[in-house]
Amino acid sequence: MTRNDQSQRPPLRCHQVRVSERTTWTFVEINDGEFNGLGEATLEGQSDAIERAVQSLGEALFEPGSRPSESHLSRLADWLLADRCAHSLVNATALSAIEQALHDLLARRAGLALHARLGQAKRSRIRLYANINRGTVPRTPERFAARALRAALQGFGAIKMAPFDGVSPDADDAHAQRALIDAGLARIAAVRSALDAQFPQCDLMVDCHWRFNAALAMQMADELAQLKVSWYECPVAEVPEQFATLRQIRSRANDLGMQLAGAETMIGVNGFLPLLKAGLYDVVMPDVKHAGGLTEVLRIAEIAADHGAACSPHNPTGPICHAHSLHVSAVFNDLPALEVQFEESELFFALADSDLPRFEDGMSALPPGPGLGTRCHIAPTAAQEE
Predict the structure, then answer these.
(1) Quick one: the chain helix, strand, coil %, rounded to 5?
(2) Residue 167 — left, alpha, or beta (φ > 0 → left; ψ -120 to 50 → alpha)?
C-alpha cells in the first residue's frame, strides 16, 4: 500500500474491489507512518459516494500531519451522538469504517488483539450462519437448494436466503406481484425440502428486504411458517408509521414459532432505541459498517438486552467487515450467531492473508492479534493514484 504524505493530508484512503456484478467491497485504510488500520464501508450502489464521504469526514477529523489517537475516536463518538450521520446511511457508513480502522490501528500500536481492546472476550469461537443469497445464480429453486445443501454439508446449522426478487410494497399489478411471491415461495420450499432430506434440524431464515406492505407481511408470516421458516427478517419498512404493524407481525410470527428480526441499516443507539422501546423485534441486527462502528455496536447489544431483544450482527459483505464482526462478537455477553456471506466470491479469502480463519463446522476462530489480525491485499483506487 502507498503511504500517505502526512504533512499534506489526513492519513486516510479508500480502496474499491469489484467482486461480482452486484457487489463492490469498499475498504478504508488509515496509516500513521508505522502502523495501518483497516475498516470496511461497503454499501450497495454507493461506492463512489462512500469514498467522497470518507474523504470529507477524514478532512474534518484529522488535522494535516496529525497522528491517529483516542481523541479521534472520541470525536467520532461525539459526531454520532449529535446525530451528524443520523439521516445519511452513506455518511454513517463512512464514519463507521473510519472508526473500525482507528480501532485496528490503535490495537496494533498497543500490541493487542482487537477484541482485547474492546473488552473481555466471552468466547474464542464464533457461531456463524450462512447467507447464501448473493452467491446463488441462477435464481432457480434447484440452485438455491443446492447452495443450501453445500452450506449445511460444511457444518452450518442455519441458512439464510432472500428469495422475493422483484416484490415491492408499492406495486400496482397484484397479479404480477403474486407471481413473484410464488416464485419466492418455490425457492424456499425447494431449500426446505432439500434440508429436510439430509439436515432436518437446520434452521431456515428468510430475509424479505422490506418488500411487503402490512397486509401481505401478515399473510406471509403464515406462509413462511408452513415452510418451517424459523426467522422472518425485515418484512416492512422500519418507519414509525409501521411500528404498530411490526408489533402485530412479531406477535403473529412468535405464535407460529418464528423470530422476527431486523434493523440492519439503523444508525447508532439513537436509531435503535425507538424500535427496542416499541418491542418490534426479537432480534436486532446492527452492522459494524452502518451502525457507527465497533463501540456503538457493543452499546446497541447492551441496550437491546435491557429491552429483552437478542443482538445478531449483520455481516454479509467482505473480509474486513467479517474480521471486525468476529472481534466484536467475541465481546458480546450473549450471541445467537453471526451472519456471514457464503461463497459469493472466492476473493473473500483470496484478498485476506492466511490469518483470516476459515469456516469450520459453522464456526470461526478469532483472527490472531495484534489488531484486526488480518490484512487485505488491496490497492488504492485509480483516482487516488492521480
Answers:
(1) 45, 15, 40
(2) beta
- Model confidence, pTM: 0.95
SS3 320: helix
Provide the grid cell at 71: 481523541
The distance from CA 15 to its chain's CA centroid, rounded to whole angstroms, is 19
User: Whole-angstrom Cα distance, residue 223 to residue 181?
Assistant: 11
Rounded to whole angstroms, the Cα distance separating 94 from 92 reads 5
- According to DSSP, the residues that pair with 259 across neighbouring strands are 231
**Tens of pLDDT, residues 19-28:** 988 899 999 9
Residue 203, CA distances (Å) to 186, 222, 229, 232, 278 in order:
17, 17, 7, 12, 27
| Residue in the structure block whose three cell numbers are 450467531 | 337
Distance of CA 207 to the CA centre of its chain: 13
In three-state secondary structure terms, 365 is strand
**Superfamily of segment(s) 12-112+375-385:** Enolase-like, N-terminal domain (3.30.390.10)
Per-residue CA distances from 295 to 270, 272, 287 (Å) = 14, 14, 11
Start-to-end Cα distance in the chain: 15
B/e letters for 279-317, b = 16+ CB within 10 Å, e = fewer, are ebbbbbbbbbbbbbbbbbbbbbbebbeeeebbbbbbbbb
Report how far residue 317's alpha carbon sits from residue 176's, in angstroms, rounded to the nearest whole number: 31
**Radius of gyration of the chain from Cα atoms?**
21
CA gap 302, 285 in Å, rounded: 13
Q: In the chain, where are the structural domains located?
A: 12-112+375-385, 118-365
The one-character DSSP state at 68 is P
Query: 323, 251, 267: which is closest to 40 by C-alpha?
Result: 323
Amino acid found at 50 = I
pLDDT in tens, 74-94: 999 999 988 778 789 999 999
Q: CA 259, CA 254: separation in Å to the nearest integer? A: 6
CATH of domain 118-365: 3.20.20.120
- As a whole number, mean pLDDT of residues 128-139 equals 97
